[in-house]
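Hi there,

I know you've been waiting on this one. I reran it after we fixed the sequence typo, so this is the corrected version. Both the input and the resulting structure follow.
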Amino acid sequence: MDAISRRVSSVFITVPMLFLVGLLLIAALLFKQRDLSILLLLVLGVAGTAKLWTTLGFSGIECRTTVNTSRVFPESGLELGLAVKNNTFLPLWFQSRIPLNGLRRRTSGNDDDALMGEASLLWHGRSRFQWELTASHRGVFRVGPVFLTCGDLFGFFPKERGIDEVLEVIVYPKLVPLKPFSINRRDFFGIPGEESPVRDPVYILGTHDYQHGSPAKFIHWKASARRHVLQEKVFEPTEQEKVLFVVAVEGFARSGASYEFERCLEAVASLAVSFDKQGIAMGFATDAVLTGKAASVRSVKRNPGHVQAILEALARLNMEKGQELLQELRQNTSLPFGVTCLYFSHGQDGASQAAGEHFRRRRVPVIHYVCDLAAERSGAPCAGPGRAIRSLREIIINNEGKGNET
């Protein structure tokens, strides 16, 4: 831990000086120097009282950090709070230091790498600090631990300790403007949803109480037996728009293409948010190493909060290859009918061809987006909505990936 600037301690309470004072006190008592003995006893008494003061107070101080939101987009603000409570009957002085570890103060021109706080607390007093922070880029940031220095009001004998409470802040990829993008719909019975004259018998969302006049074939007999009330099946609309995002990191890691990698994740995040607003079911798979305990495969579904799970997986991605992508797809990916794969990689290689063959065997159409910026500028791969291999510029409005966050 870096040294924390603290109050200057008096020379009279340093260890060598206290040792010298003890020797002088013995000599004064031997030679019966009454006034000098009283003075030296006062010095030792003040030092001992301050030491006991700090010891008792240090064990009774409480510290807790909070954050108003742990998931944000780049350049969005978040508020970090520090609450300190004195649980003793002694007034105390304290200093705190919180490493930012990549985050920064929102105040312009402030490049400090840590947050500092200092205050004096009366008996059973409380103090609270609050800072506005932001992040300039995608990633997982750990705020803390808190390094606390506490002592008596004079600052004679401060003690230091680290509080292991660490807050994790997830910063999603930046959202960029997109060109019009649509997925070909493949429906079982033509007209989707409630407008269809035919219910979809494949996907059942749940049950509710049987409505008079509904066909008897829609009765869920097992659920009715459990609840002792006739239950009717609730079907998913027949619309079968489903998307699986696949991000292959091997080519980016091999080429050291960190800019293209971030640009790719921004495109995937923007598409995911757009598809979620359209009610499209989504899944995610990658061969990258993820920060923390996070799954590299997300099944194709449309649940509340599923898009946030995909954005969090994108935020945790590192430009480092983990397990083989084809092995991940074979082991952990169950694909429902009607899914379309959007495959993102740095370029065309053996891994992308093997993945394409895997999806073709499962009758899953694949649209391959190549994110090599040099290939885009040279005109390869060929653009065109009818091609299976496309460039990232076909979906991002700003070719350099500098679009504003939405």
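Quick highlight: The mean pLDDT is 78.

Best,
R. S.
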